[in-house]
Amino acid sequence: MFRSISKKIQFLKLLHQNPNPSGNSHDFPDFSQTQLTNNLNKNLSLLQDILGHSNDVNIREFCFGNQGKIKALLIFIDGLVDARIINESILRPLMYNSRFIDSGGKVTTDPLREIERSMLSVGNIKRINRVGDIVHNILSGSTALLIDSFCEAVIISTRGWETRGVQESKTDSIVRGPREGFSENLRANTALLRRKIKSPDLIIESRTLGKKTQTDICIAYLKTVVNPRLIKEIKRRLEQIKTDAILESGYIEQFIEDNPLSPFPSIDNNEKPDIIAAKILEGRAAILVDGTPFVLTMPMVLIENFQSAGDYYSRPYYTSVVRIIRYIAFLVGILAPAAYVALTTYHQELLPTPLLITMAASREGTPFPAMIEALAMGVVFEILREAGVRLPRPVGQAISIVGALVIGESAVSAGLITAPMVIVVAFTAICSFVVPALYDVQVIIRVILVILAGFLGEFGIFIGLLGLLVHLCALQSFGTPYLSPLAPLNPSGLKDVFVRAPLWLMSNRSRGMGEWDPLRQAFRLMPQQPEKDNE
């Protein structure tokens, strides 16, 4: 044991002396801070060494100006750029337009500026002299224009890769409301957000994460509503991410969440622009990641999992009933198998006599105790669900339906599983899908409660629920209590917890999020009938 401790101490010392023990960062020189020279051939050789002579890296050398005396080149990645923009808006004006060259063949005092102003018909243009920034822009879909005798490159926005258009969201279906969902294009997603919130207070800040992937992300928030401490904390956590790859927003979520060991998520995600816009208007912040339609929002509270966008597009009466049903379904999803195990194992006296006789008859000859039955059926259902998700949709649906019917019927007929247990597990599975955002949480809690019920009965279930409540009370999301507005209690926030009050009653934003602008709308907005004309 002491030998292993000594080895760990030596490894930590070595790691402290050399933060990158693999040494990969020293295999190649770092060109991030290197600047261009005024020699075109040297600049080209340097960029070729960095980009690795890849086949998709296109280098277009050409001459322009008076009598073609000025040498230049374009560098871009094939497949990431729009070839029409390069041909029509860059090459054609440069090769056939010589307005910035005087009759003597001498360039003006700032020819790059003259090129930008008079020759390139592209919207986004900037000048950069650092090699690292030039390479990053080329790999992001821009085109670099390098001219001989100049130590700056003109970066031209020519992004034009194939993207999925705006389509209906597949993960959050609603009866009434907008159908559009985010796509994998970051700029298309920010545009969808701008369409929802046409306010100059909407701030979208860009940055890059991932040493190898160089993934573009954006932080979106309303500067007059959001708490500045929240934005500062988000930026601090993002700056601490030191990793090679950020391929999806789930990577960022796992790096910046408050409670990584808790099964409950402390950062929400969604792919519908109207939901993200509504949360930003509440005082939350959103993180958009290039390459994924799922946008992160924070802080997050527990009741968000039971709310749906359709709740606010319909009248509040039936919506409130449906929301209460969601809470009931969540409780059934975590308690039903454990309650069945406890009743059949320890507390048979709580069951009505006819029901007890029926259940006892069904259990006659069953070789396994109720706890093993519940756990085994839960595992079988998860296998069927996973097979249905991973297989192609037509095959997956057939496998799920046929597999459930055949296995359930065969297990009951063979006497391995009781019929009531099959009914309980099936009903539990249906209830679990009512709140899909907490499905994985329900599975974990369900297994723990079943084990506690198998050893301690109802007493074990109450111990598990008490521990769950204590855990939820201790959770926070970016400084906001996870059970808010229930704990600490905020009476004004209860209008949108168990029931959904009419919109004209919800005048204030949630406490702890929209503190800088707590008033959402004016008071006394209840619709009134027109006054009768006395005449």
Share of helix, binned: 40-55%
In the predicted model, the low-confidence regions spanning at least 5 consecutive residues are 21-28
Overall mean confidence score, pLDDT: 83
% residues in beta strands: 5-15%
Give short descriptive properties of this protein:
elongated; five-stranded antiparallel sheet; 11% strand; alpha+beta; 535 residues
Briefly characterize the structure.
The protein has 535 residues and is of the alpha+beta class.
Question: What does it look like?
Answer:
With 535 residues, this protein is an alpha+beta fold. The protein folds into 3 domains: 40-156, no CATH class; 186-312, no CATH class; 316-474, no CATH class. It is 43% helix and 11% strand. The protein has 16 helices and 12 strands. A hairpin with a 2-residue loop joins strand 11 and strand 12 (480-481). Helix 12 (370-390) runs antiparallel to helix 15 (439-456) and helix 15 (439-456) runs antiparallel to helix 16. The longest helix is centred in the middle third of the chain and has 30 residues, at 316-345. The radius of gyration is 31 Å and the shape is elongated. The N and C termini lie far apart (99 Å). Residues 21-28 have low confidence and may be disordered.
Topology:
Elements: H1 2-17, H2 40-51, E1 57-64, E2 70-77, H3 83-96, H4 111-118, E3 125-128, H5 131-139, E4 143-147, E5 153-156, H6 186-196, E6 202-209, E7 215-222, H7 228-239, H8 249-256, E8 268-270, H9 273-281, E9 285-289, E10 295-298, H10 316-345, H11 353-363, H12 370-390, H13 393-414, H14 419-432, H15 439-456, H16 458-474, E11 476-477, E12 480-481
Antiparallel strand pairs: 1-2, 2-4, 3-5, 4-5, 6-7, 7-9, 8-10, 9-10, 11-12
